[in-house]
Amino acid sequence: MRQRIRETVTANPRPLLSESARRTQRIRDECHIYAVHGLRVMGMDNSSLSRGLRPRFARALVEETLSDTPITVIQGARQVGKSTLARVVAGPQARVVSLDAAANYNAARTDPDAFVRQSDDLLVIDEIQRVPELIRAMKDAVEQTRRPGRFLITGSANLLEIPGTEESLAGRAETVVLYGLSQGELSGQREDFIDRLLSGDGKALGVRTGTLRRQDYLEILCAGSYPEPLTRQGRRRNAWFDNYIGRIMTRDVQDLSRLTHLDRLPDLVRLLAANTSGELVKARFAQDSGIPESSLPPYLELLETLYLIHQLPAWGEDLNKRVTGRPKVSLLDTGLAARLNHVTPAAMAPGSVSDAAGGLLESFVAAELRRQLVWAETSARLFHFRDRNGLEVDIVLESDDRRVAGVEMKAAGSVSGGDFKGLRFLRDKLKDRFSLGVVLHTGTEAVPFGDRLWALPYSALWT
Protein backbone atom coordinates (compact mmCIF):
# COMPACT_ATOMS: atom_id res chain seq x y z
CA MET A 1 0.00 0.00 0.00
CA ARG A 2 1.36 3.38 -0.92
CA GLN A 3 1.70 6.06 1.71
CA ARG A 4 -0.65 8.97 1.52
CA ILE A 5 0.62 11.57 -0.89
CA ARG A 6 -0.75 14.94 0.07
CA GLU A 7 -1.31 16.42 -3.34
CA THR A 8 -4.93 16.49 -2.24
CA VAL A 9 -6.38 16.91 1.23
CA THR A 10 -8.52 13.95 2.16
CA ALA A 11 -10.58 12.63 5.05
CA ASN A 12 -11.74 15.51 7.26
CA PRO A 13 -9.73 18.51 6.02
CA ARG A 14 -11.32 21.28 8.08
CA PRO A 15 -9.17 21.04 11.22
CA LEU A 16 -6.07 20.84 9.07
CA LEU A 17 -7.07 23.81 6.92
CA SER A 18 -7.98 25.85 9.98
CA GLU A 19 -4.54 25.18 11.44
CA SER A 20 -2.98 25.82 8.05
CA ALA A 21 -4.70 29.20 7.77
CA ARG A 22 -3.50 30.13 11.26
CA ARG A 23 0.07 29.21 10.39
CA THR A 24 -0.10 31.04 7.07
CA GLN A 25 -1.16 34.21 8.88
CA ARG A 26 1.66 33.73 11.37
CA ILE A 27 4.12 33.36 8.50
CA ARG A 28 2.88 36.57 6.89
CA ASP A 29 3.31 38.45 10.14
CA GLU A 30 6.97 37.50 10.43
CA CYS A 31 9.68 39.86 9.25
CA HIS A 32 10.05 39.44 5.46
CA ILE A 33 7.73 36.42 5.62
CA TYR A 34 10.46 34.09 7.02
CA ALA A 35 13.69 35.13 8.67
CA VAL A 36 15.86 32.17 9.52
CA HIS A 37 18.81 32.66 11.85
CA GLY A 38 21.51 30.43 13.25
CA LEU A 39 20.86 27.27 11.22
CA ARG A 40 23.88 25.85 9.47
CA VAL A 41 23.46 23.17 6.82
CA MET A 42 26.23 20.65 6.30
CA GLY A 43 27.49 20.63 2.72
CA MET A 44 25.26 23.49 1.58
CA ASP A 45 25.58 27.21 0.87
CA ASN A 46 23.94 29.06 3.74
CA SER A 47 23.97 32.53 2.18
CA SER A 48 20.28 32.37 1.29
CA LEU A 49 19.34 31.92 4.95
CA SER A 50 19.85 35.62 5.60
CA ARG A 51 17.40 36.64 2.90
CA GLY A 52 13.67 37.21 3.28
CA LEU A 53 11.88 34.17 1.80
CA ARG A 54 8.50 33.71 0.16
CA PRO A 55 5.74 31.95 2.08
CA ARG A 56 5.16 28.33 1.10
CA PHE A 57 1.60 27.27 1.71
CA ALA A 58 2.67 23.62 1.95
CA ARG A 59 4.51 24.44 5.18
CA ALA A 60 1.52 23.69 7.41
CA LEU A 61 1.15 20.24 5.83
CA VAL A 62 4.81 19.45 6.50
CA GLU A 63 4.46 20.51 10.13
CA GLU A 64 1.26 18.50 10.49
CA THR A 65 2.92 15.40 9.10
CA LEU A 66 5.95 15.72 11.36
CA SER A 67 3.64 15.75 14.39
CA ASP A 68 2.32 12.21 13.85
CA THR A 69 4.49 10.41 11.26
CA PRO A 70 8.02 8.95 11.64
CA ILE A 71 9.23 9.90 8.15
CA THR A 72 8.13 13.07 6.38
CA VAL A 73 9.06 13.41 2.73
CA ILE A 74 9.18 16.69 0.81
CA GLN A 75 9.64 15.92 -2.84
CA GLY A 76 9.50 17.88 -6.07
CA ALA A 77 11.70 19.10 -8.87
CA ARG A 78 15.20 20.39 -8.20
CA GLN A 79 15.40 24.03 -7.12
CA VAL A 80 11.72 24.50 -6.19
CA GLY A 81 12.60 25.26 -2.55
CA LYS A 82 12.44 21.86 -0.82
CA SER A 83 15.67 22.32 1.11
CA THR A 84 14.71 25.81 2.24
CA LEU A 85 11.29 24.67 3.41
CA ALA A 86 12.83 21.72 5.27
CA ARG A 87 15.32 24.01 7.03
CA VAL A 88 12.60 26.48 8.02
CA VAL A 89 10.35 23.75 9.44
CA ALA A 90 13.16 21.83 11.16
CA GLY A 91 14.48 24.78 13.13
CA PRO A 92 18.00 25.42 14.43
CA GLN A 93 18.20 22.31 16.66
CA ALA A 94 17.82 19.78 13.85
CA ARG A 95 20.79 18.14 12.17
CA VAL A 96 20.68 18.74 8.41
CA VAL A 97 22.86 16.89 5.89
CA SER A 98 22.91 17.19 2.12
CA LEU A 99 23.78 14.27 -0.11
CA ASP A 100 24.98 16.71 -2.75
CA ALA A 101 28.09 17.11 -0.56
CA ALA A 102 30.68 14.47 -1.48
CA ALA A 103 31.59 13.58 2.12
CA ASN A 104 27.96 12.98 3.09
CA TYR A 105 27.28 11.05 -0.11
CA ASN A 106 30.25 8.75 0.43
CA ALA A 107 29.44 8.18 4.10
CA ALA A 108 25.82 7.35 3.32
CA ARG A 109 26.78 4.81 0.67
CA THR A 110 29.47 3.25 2.88
CA ASP A 111 27.27 2.62 5.93
CA PRO A 112 23.60 3.62 5.50
CA ASP A 113 22.59 2.26 8.92
CA ALA A 114 25.15 4.35 10.80
CA PHE A 115 24.32 7.39 8.68
CA VAL A 116 20.63 7.49 9.68
CA ARG A 117 21.50 7.02 13.37
CA GLN A 118 23.78 10.05 13.62
CA SER A 119 21.21 12.11 15.57
CA ASP A 120 18.76 11.36 18.37
CA ASP A 121 16.70 14.39 17.35
CA LEU A 122 15.10 15.21 14.01
CA LEU A 123 17.46 14.31 11.16
CA VAL A 124 16.98 16.15 7.86
CA ILE A 125 18.48 14.46 4.80
CA ASP A 126 18.51 16.49 1.60
CA GLU A 127 18.39 14.89 -1.89
CA ILE A 128 17.65 11.39 -0.58
CA GLN A 129 17.23 9.96 -4.09
CA ARG A 130 21.01 10.06 -4.51
CA VAL A 131 21.40 7.17 -2.02
CA PRO A 132 18.17 5.09 -2.11
CA GLU A 133 19.75 2.58 0.31
CA LEU A 134 19.03 5.08 3.09
CA ILE A 135 15.30 4.37 2.72
CA ARG A 136 15.76 0.80 3.92
CA ALA A 137 18.04 1.98 6.72
CA MET A 138 15.39 4.45 7.90
CA LYS A 139 12.77 1.70 7.77
CA ASP A 140 14.91 -0.46 10.07
CA ALA A 141 15.53 2.47 12.42
CA VAL A 142 11.82 3.28 12.64
CA GLU A 143 10.95 -0.36 13.33
CA GLN A 144 13.35 -0.36 16.27
CA THR A 145 12.26 3.02 17.66
CA ARG A 146 9.05 4.39 16.22
CA ARG A 147 8.21 7.99 17.06
CA PRO A 148 6.79 10.94 15.10
CA GLY A 149 9.14 13.42 13.54
CA ARG A 150 12.21 11.20 13.38
CA PHE A 151 13.22 11.94 9.78
CA LEU A 152 12.51 14.78 7.38
CA ILE A 153 13.83 13.98 3.94
CA THR A 154 13.76 15.81 0.63
CA GLY A 155 14.02 14.32 -2.82
CA SER A 156 14.16 15.64 -6.37
CA ALA A 157 12.44 12.51 -7.61
CA ASN A 158 9.26 10.64 -6.81
CA LEU A 159 10.55 8.06 -4.34
CA LEU A 160 7.65 5.73 -5.03
CA GLU A 161 8.99 5.26 -8.54
CA ILE A 162 12.45 4.21 -7.36
CA PRO A 163 12.65 0.39 -7.14
CA GLY A 164 12.60 -0.98 -3.60
CA THR A 165 11.45 2.17 -1.83
CA GLU A 166 7.66 1.78 -1.88
CA GLU A 167 7.56 -1.15 0.56
CA SER A 168 10.06 0.54 2.90
CA LEU A 169 8.01 3.75 3.08
CA ALA A 170 4.55 2.18 3.33
CA GLY A 171 2.92 2.95 6.67
CA ARG A 172 5.98 4.83 7.91
CA ALA A 173 6.04 7.94 5.74
CA GLU A 174 3.88 10.66 4.28
CA THR A 175 4.81 12.80 1.32
CA VAL A 176 4.15 16.46 0.66
CA VAL A 177 4.77 17.40 -2.97
CA LEU A 178 6.30 20.85 -3.37
CA TYR A 179 5.96 22.54 -6.73
CA GLY A 180 7.40 25.83 -7.91
CA LEU A 181 6.09 29.09 -6.49
CA SER A 182 2.42 29.71 -7.18
CA GLN A 183 1.24 33.17 -8.17
CA GLY A 184 -0.43 33.43 -4.78
CA GLU A 185 2.81 32.61 -2.99
CA LEU A 186 4.54 35.28 -5.05
CA SER A 187 1.92 37.86 -4.06
CA GLY A 188 1.51 36.60 -0.48
CA GLN A 189 -2.14 35.65 -0.97
CA ARG A 190 -3.31 32.10 -0.38
CA GLU A 191 -5.38 30.91 -3.34
CA ASP A 192 -8.70 29.07 -3.04
CA PHE A 193 -9.81 29.06 -6.68
CA ILE A 194 -10.45 25.30 -6.70
CA ASP A 195 -12.70 25.46 -3.65
CA ARG A 196 -14.69 28.32 -5.17
CA LEU A 197 -14.88 26.71 -8.60
CA LEU A 198 -16.31 23.47 -7.22
CA SER A 199 -18.73 25.24 -4.89
CA GLY A 200 -21.27 25.64 -7.69
CA ASP A 201 -21.88 29.25 -6.71
CA GLY A 202 -20.78 31.76 -9.30
CA LYS A 203 -20.74 34.50 -6.69
CA ALA A 204 -18.13 32.49 -4.79
CA LEU A 205 -15.67 33.16 -7.60
CA GLY A 206 -15.42 36.67 -6.24
CA VAL A 207 -15.48 37.88 -9.83
CA ARG A 208 -13.94 41.26 -10.49
CA THR A 209 -12.05 42.91 -13.26
CA GLY A 210 -8.33 42.28 -13.54
CA THR A 211 -5.45 44.67 -14.09
CA LEU A 212 -3.01 42.48 -16.04
CA ARG A 213 -2.83 42.51 -19.81
CA ARG A 214 -1.66 39.93 -22.34
CA GLN A 215 1.94 41.15 -22.22
CA ASP A 216 1.95 40.78 -18.42
CA TYR A 217 0.81 37.16 -18.71
CA LEU A 218 3.47 36.43 -21.32
CA GLU A 219 6.10 37.75 -18.92
CA ILE A 220 4.72 35.47 -16.18
CA LEU A 221 4.87 32.46 -18.51
CA CYS A 222 8.51 33.05 -19.44
CA ALA A 223 9.59 33.74 -15.85
CA GLY A 224 8.29 30.36 -14.65
CA SER A 225 7.98 29.24 -11.04
CA TYR A 226 11.49 28.30 -9.89
CA PRO A 227 12.59 30.80 -7.21
CA GLU A 228 16.05 31.56 -8.62
CA PRO A 229 15.21 32.55 -12.24
CA LEU A 230 12.41 34.75 -10.89
CA THR A 231 15.18 36.99 -9.56
CA ARG A 232 16.92 37.17 -12.94
CA GLN A 233 16.28 38.73 -16.34
CA GLY A 234 17.31 38.14 -19.95
CA ARG A 235 20.57 36.32 -20.52
CA ARG A 236 21.08 35.50 -16.85
CA ARG A 237 17.69 33.82 -16.65
CA ASN A 238 18.36 31.90 -19.85
CA ALA A 239 21.71 30.76 -18.48
CA TRP A 240 20.01 29.42 -15.35
CA PHE A 241 17.50 27.38 -17.35
CA ASP A 242 20.23 26.04 -19.65
CA ASN A 243 22.38 24.93 -16.73
CA TYR A 244 19.38 23.51 -14.89
CA ILE A 245 18.24 21.18 -17.63
CA GLY A 246 21.87 20.28 -18.43
CA ARG A 247 22.52 19.21 -14.85
CA ILE A 248 19.43 17.05 -14.73
CA MET A 249 20.19 15.36 -18.05
CA THR A 250 23.85 14.65 -17.20
CA ARG A 251 23.58 13.81 -13.51
CA ASP A 252 20.13 13.18 -12.08
CA VAL A 253 18.96 10.82 -14.80
CA GLN A 254 22.17 8.85 -14.40
CA ASP A 255 21.50 8.49 -10.66
CA LEU A 256 18.03 7.10 -11.27
CA SER A 257 18.08 5.14 -14.49
CA ARG A 258 20.09 2.83 -16.71
CA LEU A 259 17.82 3.09 -19.75
CA THR A 260 19.49 2.40 -23.08
CA HIS A 261 18.74 5.67 -24.87
CA LEU A 262 19.40 8.26 -22.17
CA ASP A 263 21.51 10.20 -24.67
CA ARG A 264 18.28 10.93 -26.57
CA LEU A 265 16.39 12.16 -23.51
CA PRO A 266 17.30 15.85 -24.09
CA ASP A 267 15.71 15.65 -27.54
CA LEU A 268 12.57 14.13 -26.04
CA VAL A 269 12.33 16.93 -23.45
CA ARG A 270 12.65 19.57 -26.18
CA LEU A 271 9.93 17.87 -28.22
CA LEU A 272 7.64 17.75 -25.19
CA ALA A 273 8.30 21.44 -24.54
CA ALA A 274 7.45 22.30 -28.13
CA ASN A 275 4.18 20.37 -27.77
CA THR A 276 3.40 21.32 -24.17
CA SER A 277 -0.26 20.64 -23.29
CA GLY A 278 -0.69 18.64 -26.47
CA GLU A 279 -2.03 15.10 -26.64
CA LEU A 280 0.54 12.38 -26.17
CA VAL A 281 0.94 10.71 -29.57
CA LYS A 282 3.63 8.19 -28.76
CA ALA A 283 4.41 7.25 -32.35
CA ARG A 284 5.26 10.84 -33.24
CA PHE A 285 7.43 11.45 -30.18
CA ALA A 286 9.21 8.15 -30.72
CA GLN A 287 9.95 8.90 -34.35
CA ASP A 288 11.19 12.44 -33.70
CA SER A 289 13.31 11.54 -30.66
CA GLY A 290 14.83 8.34 -32.03
CA ILE A 291 13.55 6.28 -29.10
CA PRO A 292 11.62 3.15 -30.17
CA GLU A 293 7.89 3.55 -29.56
CA SER A 294 7.74 0.36 -27.50
CA SER A 295 10.50 1.75 -25.26
CA LEU A 296 9.06 5.25 -24.85
CA PRO A 297 6.90 4.79 -21.68
CA PRO A 298 9.81 4.38 -19.20
CA TYR A 299 11.42 7.56 -20.52
CA LEU A 300 8.21 9.49 -19.92
CA GLU A 301 7.95 7.91 -16.47
CA LEU A 302 11.51 9.02 -15.72
CA LEU A 303 10.67 12.63 -16.62
CA GLU A 304 7.58 12.45 -14.42
CA THR A 305 9.65 10.96 -11.60
CA LEU A 306 11.91 14.02 -11.85
CA TYR A 307 8.87 16.35 -11.78
CA LEU A 308 9.73 17.82 -15.17
CA ILE A 309 6.48 16.81 -16.88
CA HIS A 310 3.02 15.73 -15.88
CA GLN A 311 0.26 13.97 -17.75
CA LEU A 312 -3.38 14.98 -17.73
CA PRO A 313 -5.52 11.86 -18.27
CA ALA A 314 -8.58 11.90 -20.50
CA TRP A 315 -11.98 12.14 -18.81
CA GLY A 316 -15.21 10.91 -20.31
CA GLU A 317 -17.19 8.87 -17.80
CA ASP A 318 -19.83 7.39 -20.10
CA LEU A 319 -20.82 10.79 -21.52
CA ASN A 320 -19.94 9.83 -25.01
CA LYS A 321 -18.55 6.58 -26.36
CA ARG A 322 -16.50 8.57 -28.84
CA VAL A 323 -14.36 10.23 -26.19
CA THR A 324 -10.64 10.08 -27.00
CA GLY A 325 -8.43 8.37 -24.44
CA ARG A 326 -5.01 9.95 -24.96
CA PRO A 327 -3.54 11.95 -22.07
CA LYS A 328 -2.15 15.42 -22.50
CA VAL A 329 1.44 16.01 -21.48
CA SER A 330 3.06 19.27 -20.46
CA LEU A 331 6.11 20.63 -18.72
CA LEU A 332 5.45 21.61 -15.12
CA ASP A 333 7.32 24.90 -15.47
CA THR A 334 6.40 27.28 -18.28
CA GLY A 335 9.64 29.23 -17.94
CA LEU A 336 11.64 26.09 -18.70
CA ALA A 337 9.26 25.21 -21.55
CA ALA A 338 9.63 28.70 -23.04
CA ARG A 339 13.41 28.53 -22.83
CA LEU A 340 13.54 25.10 -24.46
CA ASN A 341 11.31 26.53 -27.22
CA HIS A 342 13.55 29.62 -27.48
CA VAL A 343 10.53 31.90 -27.22
CA THR A 344 10.27 35.21 -25.40
CA PRO A 345 7.33 37.47 -24.51
CA ALA A 346 8.13 39.57 -27.58
CA ALA A 347 8.14 36.48 -29.80
CA MET A 348 4.60 35.64 -28.63
CA ALA A 349 3.19 39.15 -29.09
CA PRO A 350 0.16 39.56 -31.39
CA GLY A 351 1.20 39.28 -35.02
CA SER A 352 4.35 37.31 -34.22
CA VAL A 353 5.27 34.05 -35.90
CA SER A 354 5.24 32.00 -32.67
CA ASP A 355 2.07 30.13 -31.71
CA ALA A 356 3.49 28.97 -28.37
CA ALA A 357 1.29 31.20 -26.18
CA GLY A 358 -1.75 28.91 -26.25
CA GLY A 359 0.11 25.79 -25.10
CA LEU A 360 2.08 27.68 -22.48
CA LEU A 361 -1.06 29.30 -21.05
CA GLU A 362 -2.73 25.90 -20.78
CA SER A 363 0.37 24.43 -19.10
CA PHE A 364 0.49 27.41 -16.74
CA VAL A 365 -3.11 26.94 -15.58
CA ALA A 366 -2.69 23.17 -15.14
CA ALA A 367 0.43 23.75 -13.04
CA GLU A 368 -1.22 26.47 -10.93
CA LEU A 369 -4.19 24.20 -10.21
CA ARG A 370 -1.87 21.32 -9.35
CA ARG A 371 -0.08 23.55 -6.84
CA GLN A 372 -3.35 24.71 -5.30
CA LEU A 373 -4.49 21.11 -4.82
CA VAL A 374 -1.75 20.75 -2.18
CA TRP A 375 -3.61 23.08 0.20
CA ALA A 376 -7.15 23.19 -1.24
CA GLU A 377 -9.94 22.19 1.12
CA THR A 378 -11.68 20.34 -1.71
CA SER A 379 -10.01 17.12 -2.80
CA ALA A 380 -10.09 16.87 -6.59
CA ARG A 381 -8.33 15.40 -9.61
CA LEU A 382 -7.43 16.99 -12.93
CA PHE A 383 -8.34 15.65 -16.38
CA HIS A 384 -9.02 16.91 -19.89
CA PHE A 385 -12.00 16.16 -22.12
CA ARG A 386 -12.12 15.71 -25.86
CA ASP A 387 -14.31 13.69 -28.17
CA ARG A 388 -13.81 12.72 -31.78
CA ASN A 389 -16.31 15.33 -32.92
CA GLY A 390 -14.06 18.12 -31.72
CA LEU A 391 -15.81 18.99 -28.46
CA GLU A 392 -13.21 19.64 -25.79
CA VAL A 393 -12.54 21.18 -22.40
CA ASP A 394 -8.93 21.97 -21.59
CA ILE A 395 -9.12 21.01 -17.89
CA VAL A 396 -11.83 19.07 -16.06
CA LEU A 397 -11.78 18.99 -12.25
CA GLU A 398 -13.67 16.21 -10.47
CA SER A 399 -14.03 16.24 -6.69
CA ASP A 400 -14.23 13.15 -4.50
CA ASP A 401 -18.01 13.61 -4.26
CA ARG A 402 -18.17 13.64 -8.10
CA ARG A 403 -18.82 17.33 -8.62
CA VAL A 404 -17.33 18.49 -11.92
CA ALA A 405 -16.03 21.86 -13.12
CA GLY A 406 -14.37 22.85 -16.37
CA VAL A 407 -11.76 25.41 -17.36
CA GLU A 408 -10.99 26.60 -20.88
CA MET A 409 -8.00 28.79 -21.78
CA LYS A 410 -7.81 31.43 -24.49
CA ALA A 411 -4.84 33.55 -25.53
CA ALA A 412 -7.14 36.37 -26.69
CA GLY A 413 -8.28 39.30 -24.59
CA SER A 414 -11.98 38.66 -25.17
CA VAL A 415 -14.27 35.65 -25.52
CA SER A 416 -17.46 34.79 -27.40
CA GLY A 417 -20.30 32.37 -26.87
CA GLY A 418 -18.60 29.82 -29.11
CA ASP A 419 -15.74 29.51 -26.65
CA PHE A 420 -18.16 27.84 -24.20
CA LYS A 421 -19.23 25.02 -26.51
CA GLY A 422 -17.42 22.25 -24.62
CA LEU A 423 -18.42 23.62 -21.22
CA ARG A 424 -22.07 23.80 -22.24
CA PHE A 425 -21.89 20.18 -23.35
CA LEU A 426 -20.61 19.12 -19.93
CA ARG A 427 -23.16 21.27 -18.12
CA ASP A 428 -26.10 19.88 -20.10
CA LYS A 429 -24.93 16.26 -19.82
CA LEU A 430 -23.99 16.34 -16.14
CA LYS A 431 -26.88 18.56 -14.97
CA ASP A 432 -26.61 19.10 -11.19
CA ARG A 433 -23.17 17.45 -10.98
CA PHE A 434 -21.74 20.33 -12.98
CA SER A 435 -20.56 23.10 -10.67
CA LEU A 436 -19.13 25.89 -12.80
CA GLY A 437 -17.43 26.41 -16.14
CA VAL A 438 -14.87 29.14 -16.73
CA VAL A 439 -13.14 30.49 -19.81
CA LEU A 440 -9.91 32.26 -18.85
CA HIS A 441 -8.65 35.06 -21.12
CA THR A 442 -5.88 37.67 -21.25
CA GLY A 443 -8.25 40.63 -20.94
CA THR A 444 -9.46 42.36 -17.79
CA GLU A 445 -13.22 41.77 -17.71
CA ALA A 446 -15.23 39.23 -15.69
CA VAL A 447 -18.47 38.45 -17.52
CA PRO A 448 -21.27 35.86 -16.97
CA PHE A 449 -22.17 33.79 -20.06
CA GLY A 450 -25.30 32.04 -18.87
CA ASP A 451 -26.12 29.38 -16.32
CA ARG A 452 -22.95 28.51 -14.31
CA LEU A 453 -20.64 29.87 -17.02
CA TRP A 454 -18.15 32.74 -16.63
CA ALA A 455 -15.42 34.45 -18.60
CA LEU A 456 -12.64 35.52 -16.24
CA PRO A 457 -9.14 37.01 -16.55
CA TYR A 458 -6.31 34.59 -15.78
CA SER A 459 -5.56 36.55 -12.62
CA ALA A 460 -8.79 35.17 -11.11
CA LEU A 461 -6.74 32.06 -10.35
CA TRP A 462 -4.96 33.88 -7.52
CA THR A 463 -6.87 37.09 -6.73
UniProtKB/TrEMBL annotation:
Residue ranges annotated for the DUF4143 domain, each copy included: 251-411
SUPFAM superfamilies the record matches: P-loop containing nucleoside triphosphate hydrolases
InterPro entries assigned: AAA_14, DUF4143, P-loop_NTPase
One Pfam family per UniProt: DUF4143
Top-level taxon of origin: Bacteria
Domain AAA: 69-186
Protein name: Uncharacterized protein
